[in-house]
Amino acid sequence: MSELMKNEKSPPVVDVESLSTKNSTLQNDMVELEDGDIALTKKMHLINNALDEIGFTWFHFKYMIIAGYGYAAESLIGLAHSTVSLAINIQFHQSFSVTTEVSYVGLLLGSIFFGMTADIIGRKLAFNTTLLASSCFGFFVGGSSNYVMYLIFLMITSFFVGGNLAIDASVFLETLPSRYTWLVTFFACFWSFGQLVGYVVAYGFMVPEKWNGCTDFDAICDSAKNRGWRYTWYVDSGILLGLSLIRLFLQLDETPKYLIVNNQDEEAMKLLQKIATKYNRNLSLTLEQLQECGSVDKNKYSKKDPKIKDFFKAATSNLKYLFATKKMKWNTTLLLTSWFGIGIAYPLYGIFLPQYLAAKGATTSASTNLGIYSDAMMSNGLSAFGPVIGAALILTPKIGRKGALCIGGILSMVFLMCYTTVRTRAQNQAFTVVSYITIYIYYGVLYAFTPEVLPSYCRATGSGLCAVVCRIGGLIVPLIAYFSNTSTPVPIYVCAGCIGFLGIIALFFPFDPSKQRSV
Questions:
Q1: CB-based contacts of 4: which residues, under 8 Å, 6+ apart?
Q2: Contacting residues for 50 by C-beta, under 8 A, at least 6 apart
Q3: In a 3-state reduction of DSSP, which class is residue 392?
Q4: How far apart are CA 156 and CA 138, in angstroms?
Q5: Which of 44, 55, 130, 372 could share a disulfide with 519, CB 3.0–4.6 Å?
């Protein structure tokens, strides 16, 4: 990592007077995302140059680790409620569980709420507080005395987790030099780490009989004999609390690009100067150069005198900006299609395959709890190689982001179809690992690609909207599973065809962050 933080070649700061939206000096920036705002285009070009001049520092490495908490958090919390769902149903005598749907609704609402607010009042507040709030309500989930209370606190916890996930990649991207934006793909491996930790905790508390003494849905379940699910939530929430306190203690600043959009040039310069001074880097940009570009006219919301009607006007404007031009409409439509498709395909992978294999008489599961959890920990731990491979692919000049998305989607389709031939535990484990890796290639690149092809003034809004359609896709999955004949391979082929289609349409995105800098 130290090699990344050595002094690099400093790009020249372009003379502000010579800049225009048609000037060749701007061709490396995605100027078409700025929707004709010349002042914003000029300022973003200068900010990108400044970030490239400063280079990669320990500040950016710290940001990567702390932003990665958000990926791990949703992964950890999502796994927590899924691993304890049977114990919850027994505890509260529920023959039909709706915990997954409730969690998805919370994630959906959190993504759109915090996504919109992050573009209006800033990323800092949501980034520093959402994980803390979700960890606190996670303890309440574990202490629930009835099913309704459990669902309410689960939704609130998911609400804050979903809000955090909507802005993590945006916050990290907006601080990075252009040469290192591939790290946004790489840090998606935190998702796999969250899954791994979640399975370790679940195994520790959901397997021992002394904490899981209830097995009959109809019998009265003494809470003292069924404490495993509570301990699982307490430990997971404790881990999340520790991570959120570290983030809160560090109190990371607003991103320079957000400050520029809101005409806070002086604050943006102070942030850049602080980084450059602390890590002994060059910074040629001056406040005067930024101010000479003029005033940005994107966000008219006033922090000094905030009104609810102004907030909704700003949120509506940011949504409209996503479809402001023909190219932006096409870009946003492909993004939403991709997220909706992966929202359906990924959960179907876990629903249809086990049922289909069981119907064919395949013995694919371990015979002991230790074996089951060991298989899960191995497949989820090794899935971290997916984002790593994805990052390597996007660094390959002839592949790039769009090529990596295509490769991830096509490979996922191939291995998903081949999965129908599995008949033994060893085959199941091998195909599970490979399938997770290929799906995470696509997932990891898509997570990073999304904020890269969105403009800074509505980046969090767009990311939140993508998360919303992903959750909507997930909510449809139980209906597909309910009405489909899971004893036939047809649903699996539909799922495989879906993710293969997503890989193909990735080639038609109008913007390519591998060749241009995000703005």
A1: 56, 61, 180
A2: 13, 256, 272, 283, 284, 285
A3: helix
A4: 9
A5: 44
Range 404-428 burial, b when 16+ CB lie within 10 A, else e: bbbbbbbbbbebbbebbebeebebb
**pLDDT value for 85:** 86
Three-state secondary structure call for residue 517: strand
Name 516's Cβ contacts closer than 8 Å, sequence gap at least 6: 27, 28, 29, 30
Q: Cα(235)–Cα(205) distance, rounded to whole angstroms?
A: 10
- Residue 99 identity: T
Q: How many CB atoms lie within 10 A of CB 213?
A: 14
- The label of the residue with tokens 């203690």 reads 249
pLDDT value of position 27: 52
C-alpha 287/C-alpha 184 separation (Å) is: 29
Three-state SS letters, 213-276:
CCCCCCCCCCHHHCCHHHHHHHHHHHHHHHHHHHHHHHCCCCCHHHHHHCCCHHHHHHHHHHHH
Q: Do 112 and 316 meet the contact criterion of CB atoms below 8 Å apart?
A: no
Its pTM stands at 0.89
Name which CATH class applies to 58-253+322-508. Answer: mainly alpha
Residue-wise burial string across 94-103, b where 16 or more C-beta atoms lie within 10 A, e elsewhere: beebebbbbb
pLDDT (tens digit, 9 = 90+) per residue, 114-123?
A: 988 888 888 8
Interatomic CA distance for residues 183 and 161, integer angstroms? 22
What is the rounded CA–CA span in Å between residue 46 and residue 24?
Answer: 14
Biggest alpha carbon–alpha carbon distance for the chain: 79
What is the residue type of 184? V
**Torsion (CA) 154, 100, 119, 184 in degrees, nearest 10:** 110
Please say whether the dihedral angle defined by the alpha carbons of residues 380, 393, 506 and 176, taken in this order, is positive or negative: positive
Q: Specify the length of the chain in residues.
A: 519
Residue 484 carries which side chain, given as an amino acid letter?
S
CA distance 302 to 306: 6
Chain segment 10-25, per-residue pLDDT in tens = 444 444 444 434 444 4
- Closest C-alpha among 409, 426, 427 to residue 418: 427
- One-letter amino acid identity for 196? L
- Taking alpha carbons only, the member of 364, 83, 74 closest to residue 192 is 74
- For residue 517, list its beta bridge partners: 29
Parts of the chain with a pLDDT under 50: 2-25, 300-302, 304
Gap between the Cα atoms of 356 and 228, Å rounded: 30
Q: Which residues, other chains included, contact 425 with Cβ-Cβ below 8 Å and sequence gap of 6+? A: 363, 364, 365, 366, 375
Question: Residue 6's closest CA among 52, 61, 55?
Answer: 55
Give the start-end residues of each E strand in 361-489.
Answer: none
